[in-house]
Amino acid sequence: MSQFSFIILTCLVFVFTYVNGFHDGCNVVATLIASRAMKPHPALAWAAVVEFLSPLVILVVGSSVSDTIQKLVGAQFYTDPGARSTALAFITAGILAAILWNLTTWKFAIPASSSHSLIGGVVGAGLAAFGAGAISWGYFWRRVVLMIFLTPLISFCLGFLILKLLRQLTCHAGVGVNKFFTYAQWVNMTFLAFNHSFNDSQKSIGIIMILIGIYGGESGGIPVWSILCAAACLASGIAFGGFKIIKTVGTGIYRVQPIHSFASQLTAGTVILSSSLVGAPVSASQIVSSSIMGVGAAERYKAVRWTVAKKILLSWFITIPIAGTLGAVLYFLFSLIF
Question: Which of 31, 41, 177, 242 has the least C-beta neighbours within 10 A?
Fold first, then answer.
């Protein structure tokens, strides 16, 4: 029975990973498609290949983002064999809360954060199950809340500066420069997709490690099967594409041309890579959207659709509280079942 329930919950984690793929993953190709550098289906297919291969790097460089996810709730609370039913209710509620909020924001084409949905769901369920003392508030405030404010600001400023620099470097260039930026986006999109998958796959792996701890398994190394499954689910989600969110990000904030897309991709890929190296589970949708705002503001401030930007900004601030509330409510429901 315990083995069967472990398999069911593991599958639930990978359902979240799949939803994450078509919800957040489509951000990596949004500007590429909007600038007409590549048609949607080939762009999604190439991104899916890159996102499948990227998590394999975890075997070489480690998984600091996964460690952060595991440490959000103290391991001693969910690894106690006497509290297994509580732990099962906690983790099930956290995962389902993230899935439900992701599907809701996808339905309304809001590029909210899958990462924040998962973190909010897990922390909210953890609070309801074990109390405030179970939450590693240091990790939560430094690596989650701080990054909610810091990464969009960095992305906006870096996108602004990169576009200004590119305009200076190409001010005397001929029409052929547009062709360069059109094809250069393919390289940049590969860079962005690689870093997105490296960061996002580790969030699912972190939940798998929590599950292994709940069932009393060894917490030594990350199982290779979890890396492969997370990679496959992310890639599958992206292959099917969240076209509603692609439209919102690609054309709803600012009507990008090849040079804008190039600057945005370079910005977002750099910020996500830097965040991964310090173990921060950041939001790709947040970073990509902010970089587009920065690029648009550098080109023509009034051309940025700030009403759309405000809606996106609102989703960043409400995702963790709403997912956390969902996680807590679902915990109380599942505690009756488990």
Answer: 41
User: Residue 92 to residues 2, 42, 187, 243: CA-CA distances in angstroms?
Assistant: 14, 36, 39, 29
Q: What is the pTM of this model?
A: 0.90
Q: Which stretches of the chain are DSSP H helices?
A: 2-23, 27-34, 40-53, 58-61, 64-71, 75-78, 84-107, 114-130, 137-139, 146-169, 176-214, 224-240, 243-247, 258-277, 284-300, 306-337
Report the first-to-last Cα separation within the chain, whole angstroms: 13
Domain, as residue range, for 72 = 2-337
Distance CA 338, CA 321 (A): 25
Cβ-contact 261, 81 below 8 angstroms: no
* Rounded Cα–Cα distance for residues 134 and 216 (Å): 19
| Each residue's pLDDT tens digit, 50-75 | 999 999 888 777 778 888 899 899 99
Task: Give me the half-sphere count of Cα atoms (radius 13 Å) on the Cβ side of residue 41.
Answer: 0
Burial class of residue 296 in the structure, from the number of CB atoms within 10 Å of its CB (0-12 exposed, 13-18 middle, 19+ buried): buried
pLDDT in tens, 96-106: 999 999 889 88
Q: Look at residues 29, 27, 193 and name the one whose alpha carbon lies nearest to residue 110.
A: 27
In 3D space, the residue among 311, 231, 281, 232 whose CA is nearest the CA of residue 122 turns out to be 281
Contact status, residue 250 vs residue 43, Cβ threshold 8 Å: no
Euclidean distance between CA atoms 331 and 96, whole angstroms = 10
State how many domains the chain has.
1
